[in-house]
Each structure stands twice: as C-alpha cells, then as structure tokens.
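Extended Data, panel c. Modelled sequence:
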Amino acid sequence: MLVKNYEKKDNKAFFQVEVNAEAFDKALSAAYKRVKGSIQVPGFRKGKVPRKVAEGLYGADVFHEEAVAELAPEAFDFAVKTEKIKNIGTPSLIDYNAEEDGGFIMSFSTELYPEVTLGQYKNLEAVYEEHEIGKKELEQEIEAVRKKNARYVEVERPVQNGDMIVLDFEGFVDGVAFEGGKAEDYSLEVGSGSFIPGFEEQLVGMNLDEEKDINVTFPENYGGDLAGKEAVFKVKIKVIRETRLPELDDDFAQDISEFDTMEEYSENLLKKIKEEAGKASDSHFKSGLLEKAVSNMQVDMPQALIQETCEELLRDYASKLGIPPTTPREQIFMYLGLDESSFMNMMEAPARSKAKMELLLDKIVEVEELSVSEEELEESYKEMQEELKLDIETIKKEIDEELLRRDILRRNAANIIYDSGVKITPEEADAIESTEDEPESSESSED
C-alpha cells in the first residue's frame, strides 16, 4: 500500500491509499467467494458461476464494492500509522477507482485532533483552604456514627421530633384523591423533612391509633399539577418508635471498631477526619490549577471529539452499573432510562470539559517530552494487582499497554501543573478577583 496526496485543512485530513494490482485482485477473489452462492446465470449451477463470467456479464466492477468493504479499514489503518494521523471518530470513504495497471485507489477524509496552543500551565495560583479540625468536628462525626447505630423502641406516648413512626395516609385536593398521595404502613422519621413543609410538624403530639386531617400547601416549585395547591392528608398513626442512642463508652468503641477504648477510637477517628479534610483541600486545589491551565490554552473543539468523549462516558456509566461492555448502545440507554438525544445533551458539557483537559495534558506531554519508564509501568501493574486482586500476568493480558502508558503520561503531565502550583488563601483569591474586576481609571485633561 502507498499513501498519496496527503493534505490537512480545517482540522480534517484528506488522502488517498493506493493498493497494488496483486492485493486488489486478492480482495476481488475474496469478495467473489463471499457472494458467488447468490449468483445465478443460465447454463451454470447456482454458486458455480466463474468469476470472469460474472464480471463479463455484470461488469468488471461487479465485485468492487464488496472488495472495498474488506480493503478500506485496512487501508485507512495503514495510512494512520504511516502518516501518524491523530484522527477522531469514523472516517469517510470519499471515492474509489480502479487503475489501468490493475491497482486500486481509495480516497478518505477524517477529522483530526485539534491543534492546541498552550498558555501558562506552570506556577499557577489556586485556592488551598485549610480546614480547622478539632473537638467540635470530632463530636459531630461521633454523633453521626452514634445515630447510625441507634435502636428504635416502641413507645406509647405522643409523637415527638426524631421518632420513627409508621402511618397510613391519603391526600386529597378539592376533596378528590390524587395519584401518588396514598400509602399504608409508611415508615417516616419525624423531622427529617421527607414530606412537604408543614406535614411532619403537624404529626407531633399525635397519639397511637389517632386519626387526623393535616392541611398543607404544595410549594410553587413542586413538579406536576399539584404546585401551589392546598391539600388535605388523612393520616393514622400505627406505630411510634423512640430513638435510643448507645452510650459513648468503651463497649460502644468495641462494637463499632477494632479499638478497645473510646479514647483510642476517638484519636483514630480524629486522624481520619483530618486526612479526609486534607484530601478534599488537595483535590480542590488541583482542580483549580487544572481549570486555570485549560482556560489559558487555545483550541477549537471539534464536535466529533465531544461526541467521542460522550461515548466514553456512556461506556463508563454502563461499566459502573455492571452492564457488559458488549451491550448495544440502545440497550444501555434503556437501562439508563434515557433516549440517546437526552443523554448526549446532558453529557455535552462534561464531555467538552473532559476532552479539553485531556488535550491540555497530551500537549504538555509533547512539549515536556515526557516518557514512561519500565519502573513506572510495573508500579502501575502492581497497583492494579492490589486493587483487582488478580495476578500481574492476567492483568497484563487484559490491559491495553498503550492506553496504560497514555494514562501514566497524562498523570505525569498533571503533576507538572500540581507541583509548580502556588497555594493561596480564599481571602487572597477574593482580593485578586476584586483587583481584576476594578475598572481602569482614566484621567481627563482640560484644554
């Protein structure tokens, strides 16, 4: 094969691939064998018509289309590797023609990854917010854990905030029951805000087996036909359970952790809270740096790249839901409860953002001349081994090494941004923003 007349224009590549006579004839023979069973010519049994006879009867190009279907993917891949084309999406076969010497030429076009002009990506400033973690935060976390381990005990007293109750209810608007407004044996934590405003407050003070009409008004922003309407709920209290929180003692620490005392448990929990707070600050700082680096670069985003990234996000969602990777797109949309148009509209903004970030990192890899060492590659395999609980040889068979190398390169490019980043406080960021927003002063002069 030979690539000819390669041209780039408006983020598109146009080129031809020439196939020699021998390769083209081989493709024609393969095409003939695939379709000969359907060829019928008087004097020949079905499927026994010689190729030359069929070509003479139906035209010399009778098998060209079938041959092209086999040759085109291979020819396009050859051109991509030969010319190092960074293409996006599905290529187009513009035209194909047989030559007098028996060879064959196919003309292709394909969209290209856009040209990226980097702006500043080192020594950028971003907010790093220090979180003061102390006794108050520790007590809040312990209380949350305590509530998770609460017991509910049935009591015979009026309903109080915080009780877990079981009730029947049915809602009416203008005396007519509305759809979705009825339930039996419904469990509700009073004061949780699960119902519309005013409903749970009127449950407080009700007794076991008591029936009552509760008057409420649906919020103006409530979905459907009920928005802003007055309603009456007929309710009956069937069970009242009181929340019993466990004592904060050594027994509690032993029940919920590997520690023997509350003191040991509290010390460990405080350490974890501080670590999580630090991770959150780091993540926010790094995101801020990336956003600035992306905003500083110049690139014209082709729609094909956004579409391609949307497809990646679709497969990611499918994977998280446990949907096999071979599942047809239409079936994935059915699982998600969306049609294709709705999903693509919903994902266009995050897909654009993701694609821009990857273009940024790939350009930094190129400019910084980054490469992946064998040590880095093996370290990544070991990390996957610990996470997936598989032996390294199995992982190596399943993982595309080129994609792994790309991910390592992008991670190293991001680290260049992070390592050179400058941490500033929220107050410093506000001061900078105020300065940037101030209009330029102009001095007037009198003649």
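The mean pLDDT is 87. This feature is highlighted in the accompanying rendering.
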